[in-house]
Amino acid sequence: GHPAAASRISSSDTCTDANAPFSTQLSAYVDINEGTGRDVGAMDQWATGCGVQRAGGFQLTSEDGLDFSVMTTEALPEGSPLLYVPEQMVLSSNKAKQELEAMGNVQEAVSQLGRLGAGTQVSEFYLFLKVLVEYEKGD
Q1: C-alpha distances in angstroms, 104 versus 91, 98, 107, 110, 127?
Q2: Stretch 98-107: mean pLDDT, rounded?
């Protein structure tokens, strides 16, 4: 996150459990079982519990309980940040690469992608592999 953006967002939404393990927070708030309906309220609690902060007046809204959008109830200056998302919550190919390389054996697969002419998709490979690793953990 950007420190200047964070300083402009209300600290009243700051999480007391921001250092809790990410997977523990997710399973504590959100039912991730296949076929489970969308629970935006629980997802919002989880995000706040993980340190996401929002600008004053930021709201998730829905007319039918199925499709959601964002609105603000306060006028905000143009270019103002709406959300601050902590860096540890951002899924990036660079972080996935570091984590997966530390696990070992991924470099051979990356080399194989290059030999197959798919070297431009290595970033996507790391992201997809990270999702598979998390899925395998079951949480």
Answers
A1: 20, 10, 7, 12, 16
A2: 90
